[in-house]
Amino acid sequence: MTLELTASARALESFEIDPEFLVRDHVCSAYFGLEIGALGAAGDVDPAYRHELGPLQVNWQRLASAVRAAQMGGMDFVSIDSRFLLKADVDPREGLLDGARAAARIAPHSIGGVLVEVPGVPKLMSQAIDIMEKQDEGWAGLIFHLNDSSDFLGLSKVAAKAQEAGVKLLVIIGEAELVPQRAHIIAPYADAIELRCPDPILARKARFALREAGEKLGKEIHVYAQVGVVISASESAARDRAELVGSIHVGHLFGGRMRVLGTVYDVADAVEALIGMGAADGVWFMPCSLPADQSSVIKGVVPLIRARTREWRAANALA
């Protein structure tokens, strides 16, 4: 369910964007996704303690409900990252395709996209395509890293197989500053990009380079900015919750990604700013915690964006 939103100058100003990128108010379309990998059997549990949990398995009803709620609530797709496991007490190396198996099982409940992160190894990617290619109303996609040591010949074969099976390929990019020089290498293997970059200016440059490289190949490459969100009644409450979650789970919260800590209004402003300045074709939300932030995105941020767009249209119709 692609959303229309108002890319307002007010939102751009609130997001501290350089005046060079300020634009007049206008309406544009954008795509939205939601990361739900935390709904795996182990969630965010430290790998060192997984074997102590016993045979804890994924809650299929909860997973299917989350997918359906997200897609009915305005998300074009949901994603399952590499931490996802069907059982908590297994070696993660044995669960590399667990996300693909989950996507196949919940396909009857999906009306949009289900994207799954897999290692960028042609053999594993080919197996994942075989598992995921049968979809009902929805569609499937693979997310993977591409680097200098990738098997490009093998990936070319995988790309051809994915296209025939109707499975999309999304490349993860964490070094946006290198994209302008490498866009022509990335474009042949990507239907879309998952951009992990905290700087919206670098993200904008990367997006334009990737879209230009895609156009030369006769394809439209969508670039999604992955944004970590902590949503509360106030900015201070959101920051407090972020600190609490960060103290529980080892590692940097949202490491290397853009992030918004605040109210639904702050998140909506950030979304308008990113789309309005041309830094992304859509926003890929990474909730700090499920289901709290998922609910805030679906029941708070999305309706707010829709309301702002209706108000803008109504005001301009009378002008």
List SSEs in N-to-C order: EHEHEHEHEHEHEHEHEHEH
Briefly note the CATH topology name. TIM Barrel
What's the CATH architecture?
A: Alpha-Beta Barrel
> CATH class, anyone?
Alpha Beta
CA(first)-CA(last) distance: 29 Å
**How many beta strands in the DSSP annotation?**
10
The radius of gyration computed from the alpha-carbon positions, rounded to a whole number of angstroms, is: 19 Å
**Global shape:** globular
Approximate helicity band: 40-55%
InterPro entries: Luciferase-like_sf
Would you kindly provide a written description of the structure presented here, covering whatever features stand out?
This protein is α/β, with parallel strands linked by helices and 319 residues long. The protein has one domain (3-318): TIM Barrel. 41% of the residues lie in helices and 19% in strands. The protein contains 10 helices and 10 strands. The chain has helices spanning 9-14, 60-72, 98-105, 122-132, 152-165, 179-186, 200-216, 235-248, 264-276, 292-318, and strands at residues 3-6, 27-35, 77-80, 113-117, 139-145, 167-173, 192-195, 222-231, 258-262, 282-287. The chain has an 8-stranded parallel β-barrel with strand order 2-3-4-5-6-7-8-10, surrounded by 8 helices. The chain starts with a strand and ends with a helix. The mean pLDDT is 88.
